[in-house]
Amino acid sequence: MRISKETINALKAQGIIVRWFPEETYEEFKQAQWQREYKRWFEYSKSSCKELNPPKNDGAYYSYNYETLAEYEEYIKKFCDQIIERHCDPYEYDTLYVTHDGEQMLVKKENVKSKQITVEYVLKLVEKDRKVYAGTYGQFAIAMQRLCKEKGFNGFHVYPTTYGIGVWLFYNFSAEKHIAQVEQIMKERNVEYYNEYSEARWVYRFKVSKKRENIERICS
Fold this sequence. Notes:
By secondary structure, the chain is of the alpha+beta class.
């Protein structure tokens, strides 16, 4: 998908924040990508090359065309940064994050197929979102947002939805921990729910019963 700066600014003037990443700023998103995916790979590459290319007798270190470990580390870090830069390119993303009404509501639109995201497209998403949140179940979703924030969930791996809570599985090395944390939240409040996977099995869903008494348990 493509979304222009003009479109983003036009929506921002209406109190609607649009981005293709879940973090607050682009730089925070890049840093999160580094922590989630590439730092682990960087440390592994560095340690592996130490084993495969031990220091010379004079103490110097070499790997490929690099004489010192510091030079190789600099190369790997630069390589990772370049990958992240490309990965963060908005044109490569098909998920849209939209916050509105004082950031109390969130549209998370997956599988965006539009080549160009327009103001009208986003306004339709927001209007649909407002209708969903207008009822009792919408109040539940807002309460779930607040609860996730209080628990320190980062808004990407664990996020509130109008059906309950979604736990992102793909490239989430802490998925089991996150699932256990959400289960604890549900049990503490005696909330009725069931679990299912998304169609692509990228998300593990906690689908909460829409019974009024059940919703009130999580809203209290």
